[in-house]
Amino acid sequence: MKKIVVIGGGGHAKVLISILKKNADFELIGYTDPEDKGALLGISYLGEDEVIPSLLANEKELFAAMGVGSVNVNGYREKVYSTIKSFGIEFPAIVSKDAIVNEDVELGEGTVVYDGVVVNSGTRIGIGAIINTNSTVEHDCVIGDFTHVAPGSTLCGEVNVGRNCMIGAGSTVIQSITIPANSLVRAGSVVVK
Q1: What CATH number was assigned to the domain covering residues 93-193?
Q2: Fewer CB in a 10 Å sphere around the end CB: N or C, the chain?
Q3: Is residue 124 within 8 Å of 143, Cβ to Cβ?
Q4: How far apart are CA 23 and CA 177, in angstroms?
Q5: CATH fold for the domain made of 2-86
Q6: What is the pTM of this model?
């Protein structure tokens, strides 16, 4: 069992905690956040992110999971990720037991695939991405680092999404479209060109 700490204490972190609790590969030891929000789903507050080095000193093998969500393209998640990585901790890719990730899919370090997601063959997903609840990523897509595919979104085949993008909730991107880096696709959009 890998011991893991969740970075962040908001709503996104709670969903991630639920996923990790269902996964027998991980033992949750707590969460970090600038603010003590009390126990989250029974998981203890450990302190601010600066507590990570002392946790690493006491644990031979400790991992982190990015529980900081995002609804914009300001690069905040990447900054938090870089800070935590500078402490020498690793972020495994995490896949919900209630998601489908088919063969020949690459998931970057720190990427999280949430409940009800389908990721199809030939897809490549970068570092620190969020593939959120009930979204679909069809065959041969490329998703850049720190991109968030929000709940209920659909990326049809061969879609290429740059780094640090937000694909809004319930949106659809038709096949073979390229979304440039730092783009925001608004919720409910249909991207056809």
Answers
A1: 2.160.10.10
A2: C
A3: yes
A4: 34
A5: Rossmann fold (3.40.50)
A6: 0.95
